[in-house]
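Section 3.1 - Work completed
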Amino acid sequence: MNTPQMQSFPIRSYTKKELALCYFPQAKNPHTAVNHLMSWINRCEPLCDKLHEQGYQKSAKWFKPKEVRLIIEHLGEP
């Protein structure tokens, strides 16, 4: 999926904290933002499946560009 909206958000490597704060800028604590983002990701089974196919590891501190693209395709842009 390559929509014009997706092109406005830069696809690059992000720490989990960076990406989570893009989705939840109002979070008072970055850890809370990460927890919310990971909760969204974990509830989206197709996204989880595709992330694991890409080699995503739960303990990773960074999302690779391919993983960021998948997240945006399934959850929308922040």
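Second construct:
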Amino acid sequence: MRVVFMGTPEFAVPTLQTLIDNHEVVGVVTQPDKRKGRGKAMQFPPVKEKALEYEIPVYQPVKVRKDEEFFHTLEQLNPDIIVVAAFGQILPESILNLPKYGCINVHASLLPKYRGAGPIQWAVINGEKESGITIMYMEKGLDTGDMLKKVVVPLEEKETGESLHDKLSVAGGEILLEAMKEIEEGTIRPEKQEDALSTYAPMLDKAMGEIDWKKDAVTLERLIRGLYPWPSAYTHLGTKTLKVFSADIVDKTTDQMAGTIVEVTKDAIVVQTGTTCLALKEVQLEGKKRMEVKAFLLGYEVKEGTVLPKES
């Protein structure tokens, strides 16, 4: 089929590669380039880099909903189908209705659970045992279209937002091709979503990473894993921000207030939570490099009894 692909981040690159290997990709649509890093150098989205590698035309409209010129470009490309994976913009009905076989989305959850922008991280934060990929038809609503294919991906005990992201980015290739084949043959069997079973996975922001030590250790350990590597969980050590990248639940409790450092070992900083304790294993103090606590303690003195408060 003639395919237009819409996607932006690293997550979408394996999907684009699958399409390149198996179909005719006539155009790639991605978000505009952004300036990043200390030097503010212009950086291409990962999907654009992959498309240029294969000399596929790239289009970067600022707002697809308001760009009539871009819509006319799509008409000229005449795609049989539009495939979307983490594009980052909502498509108007004019685009949804343009291709012969419609628009389908590669969504990183087992719908109807976790509609929205942050399904990968929220699956970890909420302690799900499994996640997956859903291939779905796109419609006006947010991830509300009919489901076409699913693949289940179990979560490991120490799954992080990053590791689950990497697994899911490559998990949907085979079922995407199956769905496209059945769509073209007219044998696909769409399944309606049960709205009553849906949950919303909002976009991540830095504020949600602040650790509230009054919460239980299980909840906080999941938060740390789910927000790894971005935006990351964090607390405050003195006047500086302390990012926490890894922690273990410790079957120990004390009579100290939540947030109190109750023990400092050679490779862990043990903190009282609202229930048991958490042993911080990998951290980054503001202005310093990320490192294991064992190395951190060689250059920074941390005293038992110090309180790591959640600032209001």
